[in-house]
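Structure (tokenized):
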């Protein structure tokens, strides 16, 4: 395994570990809106405020997701995607794509593909007023999802169509 591929895999593992240890789930009811609506969440350090907009959720139409440095991402089901915008509404914001899931009407969840996160969406800090957009991907192995959720342990946001 070359050094670049190893570094990319190590970075993905760190994101998974951070997402798995983010503390208890928020107890408040989620904020729910339709696709195309901006919902806001505090940045992970609490200093900034991010605006997240999920525009749609649909099958991607491709069979293989190829990510720079990592290569092809193995899939167990059907690849779904959601076009997503991130805006730094106040302060500096690091797009937190690891907190997204696609969910079915009966509550089954498909976590965002960590290997891919959002290959065309910057995960570098955005200064106030900065923005980034791209797609997040889900490996759907059962019923079709109907909504996208964001849960960082403090904020619970849900977009549905």
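Design, position by position:
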């Amino acid at each position: 395994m070359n050094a670049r591929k190893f570094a990319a895999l190590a970075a993905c593992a760190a994101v998974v570990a951070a997402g798995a240890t983010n503390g208890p789930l928020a107890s408040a009811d989620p904020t729910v809106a339709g696709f195309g609506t901006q919902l806001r969440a505090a940045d992970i350090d609490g200093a900034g405020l991010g605006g997240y907009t999920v525009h749609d959720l649909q099958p991607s139409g491709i069979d293989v997701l190829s990510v720079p440095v990592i290569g092809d991402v193995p899939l167990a089901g059907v690849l779904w995607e959601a076009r997503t915008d991130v805006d730094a509404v106040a302060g500096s914001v690091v797009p937190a794509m690891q907190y997204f899931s696609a969910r079915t009407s009966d509550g089954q969840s498909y976590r965002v593909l960590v290997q891919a996160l959002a290959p065309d969406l910057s995960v570098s800090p955005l200064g106030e007023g900065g923005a980034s957009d791209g797609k997040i991907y889900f490996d759907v192995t059962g019923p079709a999802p109907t909504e996208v959720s964001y849960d960082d342990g403090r904020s619970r946001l849900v977009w549905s169509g």
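Reviewer-requested clarification: Residues 1-27 have pLDDT under 50 and may be disordered. The longest strand covers residues 78-90.
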